[in-house]
């Protein structure tokens, strides 16, 4: 027999609809509780259908904002990660690799690229016994690293590259756009999770009621009755 975990929401919803159809054909069916009548089941089913539609819309919205952020970071020529080398090259050529600010920017760049050298783990004898990865690849950390770079650039009043994409003002606007998209994604994801939880709650209520009805049909009509044989195979 199939377990509940192996059933999709669609199959369980379909079984619930089938159960309602059977009940509507039983002229002498009387729900043991008001909440177990076909009208109540139909309301729950219709609500779940609406929630499923809403979920599709929210998932589409979430994917759209995620793609929007990906474009800001990886878009050809003007994506943030594609601007790191031009920024690095300009700073080192103009100020030198040993400049304190340049070193700090390069450190932030390494973090954004996920190439920060690992931290060495030593024992009491100062012997290296392992490493701890310092890779920071989340978009949140990349956004913060970009902010660090922009802060360093703001301290260099003569920073004025010819590449319009890496000018101070352009980078500030880019960072602001990324922060706005990050916020949109957080909100979109929260809404998506809330809607999924709502669907789960509705389904749990529906499945509980369907199982109760199956047990009641067995009691009312008998284990060998046509009515029970019809619903017996419906798994929730």
Structure report:
There is one protein chain. The protein has 236 residues and is mainly alpha-helical. It folds into two domains: 4-70 and 189-232; 76-188, no CATH class. The protein is 68% helix and 4% strand. It has helices spanning 9-25, 38-74, 80-95, 100-113, 139-154, 168-221, 226-232; strands at 119-122, 128-132. It has a two-stranded antiparallel sheet. A hairpin with a 5-residue loop joins strand 1 and strand 2 (128-132). Helix 3 (80-95) runs antiparallel to helix 4 (100-113) and helix 6 runs antiparallel to helix 7 (226-232). The protein starts with 8 loop residues before the first helix and ends with a helix. Mean pLDDT is 88; it is low at 1-6 and 132-136.
> What series of H and E elements makes up the topology?
HHHHEEHHH
Number of domains: 2
Low-confidence stretches: 1-6, 132-136
Spatial order of strands in the largest sheet = 1-2
Q: How many helical stretches?
A: 7
Radius of gyration over C-alpha positions, nearest whole angstrom: 30 Å
Class of secondary structure makeup: mainly alpha
How many strands?
A: 2
As an assembly, this protein is single chain
Describe the main β-sheet briefly: 2 strands, antiparallel
Which descriptor suits the 3D outline? rod-shaped
Proportion in helices: 55-70%
Mean pLDDT: 88
Rounded to the nearest angstrom, the distance between the terminal CA atoms is 11 Å
Strand content: under 5%
């Amino acid at each position: 027999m199939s377990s509940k975990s192996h059933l999709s929401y669609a199959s369980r919803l379909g079984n619930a609809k089938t159960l309602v159809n059977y009940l509507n054909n039983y002229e002498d069916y009387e729900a043991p509780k008001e909440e177990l009548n076909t009208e109540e089941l139909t309301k729950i089913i219709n609500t779940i259908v609406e929630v499923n539609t809403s979920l599709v819309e929210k998932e589409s919205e979430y994917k759209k904002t995620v793609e929007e952020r990906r474009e800001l970071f990886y878009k050809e020529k003007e994506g943030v990660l594609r601007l790191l080398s031009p920024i690095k090259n300009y700073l080192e050529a103009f100020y030198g690799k040993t400049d304190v600010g340049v070193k700090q920017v390069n450190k932030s760049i390494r973090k954004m690229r996920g190439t920060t050298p690992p931290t060495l783990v030593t024992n009491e004898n100062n012997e290296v016994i392992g490493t701890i990865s310092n890779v920071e690849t989340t978009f949140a950390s990349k956004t913060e690293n970009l902010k660090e770079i922009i802060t360093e650039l703001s301290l260099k009043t003569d920073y004025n590259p010819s590449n319009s994409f890496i000018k101070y003002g352009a980078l500030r606007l880019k960072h602001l756009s990324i922060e706005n998209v990050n916020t949109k994604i957080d909100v979109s994801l929260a809404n998506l999770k809330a809607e999924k939880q709502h669907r789960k709650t509705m389904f749990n209520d529906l499945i509980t009621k369907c199982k109760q009805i199956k047990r009641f049909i067995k009691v009312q009509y008998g284990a060998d009755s046509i009515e029970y044989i019809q619903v017996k195979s419906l798994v929730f």
